[in-house]
Write a structure and sequence with these properties.
single chain, alpha/beta, Rossmann fold, 3 domains, 5-stranded parallel β-sheet, 11 strands, 18% strand, binds iron/sulfur cluster
């Protein structure tokens, strides 16, 4: 918050929230579904403005964090077996797998390139041709349409050495599981993902679970407005889905982006760290686009991966605990030497707690 006016507005919103929560007279717990919200909340120190009976917990919206360890293993095994060039977004390279991370694989001579856009994977594939080039497909509805558009472009250009290793996730199925938890009283809904799927797509939270949701932007004031609305709806027992990010999110989202996504991908089961296999919560390549499927064309045997039992990432991603309850936090597990993905990702809850302090 930069200006004096923004600070005054934030304090007024915080007062409203405190008044609502005091009148409610009971604890309320909301989940910030999105990792970008987690970071924004900690970076701005918003928690210090909230009353003691309003608690925020993290959800499964950090794509790197919910990606299972076996995916890193699979990528490295493909790289080794096929001398493939791996292309990925930056956060993934430091996530520990069973036999090292993508960073250690690169240090051992493996080919790993960090890109900022899926389209860069086409450039890389052309540079590497005929070597197989594998884009590591991690992300939610925000990212998936751009990957789909990349594969459409690759198809048109006849790029035949580009593949995708899919670990994409969609947000509604895990939310349906989490909404059934009695100790969650509302959801701060993700701004970026909602720009694609639409604020109207969350109505099941109200109809099936009697829980409110508020789509929020990422400025501190955006988040405070959404928390004020969630507090009021939860306190009054009158849940709705409110779109508090109207400058970006429409009720019907972005139908064009969804159409591109649907042309290239179809629903599939997905494994979520913390939630296990959730039917229909992931995406697989569809029809003629299966020609890009690394799992089909570059198969490897992936041993069952075991997470460090001391790492609480799985519980953190379902709002069941917080990083400060982990015995490794800030000791054996730091951003420089992470044990679990929640400490690696720029959207990870452990990384947020470590960078900005335990609120
Ligand atoms: S501090 Fe490290 S070990 Fe503990 S839950 Fe977070 S990522 Fe896992």
């Amino acid at each position: 918050m930069n200006s004096a006016e923004e600070k005054r507005t934030a304090q007024a919103l915080a007062r409203e929230i405190r008044t609502i929560c005091a009148a409610a007279g009971r604890p309320m717990q909301f989940m910030e579904v999105c990792g970008t919200h987690t970071m924004a909340i900690h970076a701005s120190g918003l928690k210090s403005l909230l009353p003691g009976n309003l608690r925020l917990v993290s959800g499964p919206g950090c794509p790197v964090c919910v990606t299972e360890k076996g995916f890193i293993d699979e990528a490295i095994l493909i790289g080794r077996k096929y001398d493939a060039s791996l292309v990925t977004f930056g956060d993934l390279v430091r996530v520990p797998g069973s036999f090292g991370s993508l960073t250690t694989f690169r240090a051992e001579g493996g080919r790993v390139t960090v890109v900022y856009s899926p389209m860069d994977a086409i450039t890389r594939a052309l540079q590497e041709s005929p070597r197989p080039t594998v884009f590591l497909g991690v992300g939610f509805e925000t990212t998936i349409p751009t990957v789909a558009a990349t594969l459409q472009a690759a198809g048109l250009r006849g790029v035949d050495n580009l593949f995708v290793l899919p670990a994409f996730k969609t947000i509604h199925r895990p939310l349906q599981i989490l909404a059934a938890k009695d100790d969650l009283h509302g959801f701060l809904l993700p701004g970026h993902v909602s720009a694609i799927i639409g604020a109207g797509s969350y109505e099941y939270l109200v109809q099936d679970f009697n829980k409110p949701g508020a789509v929020a932007g990422f400025d501190p004031l955006d988040i405070l407005v959404a928390l004020r609305d969630l507090s009021r709806m939860a306190a009054e027992g009158r849940p709705e889905i409110l779109n508090d990010y109207r400058r970006v999110v429409r009720n019907d989202g972005n139908p064009v982006a969804r159409a591109i996504m649907d042309e290239v991908f179809e629903p599939a089961d997905a494994v979520w760290r913390g939630l296990g296999v959730i039917p229909g919560s992931g995406l697989a390549l569809r029809g003629t686009f299966t020609r890009f499927d690394a799992r089909k064309h570059l198969p490897v045997e992936v041993p069952v991966a075991k997470d460090d039992p001391r790492c609480l990432c799985a519980a953190i991603l379902t709002g069941s605990t917080t990083p400060d309850k982990c015995g490794l936090f800030g000791k054996e597990c730091t951003p420089e030497d992470p044990v679990g993905p929640c400490m690696v990702s720029s959207e990870g809850t452990c990384a947020a707690y470590h960078k900005y302090g335990v609120a």
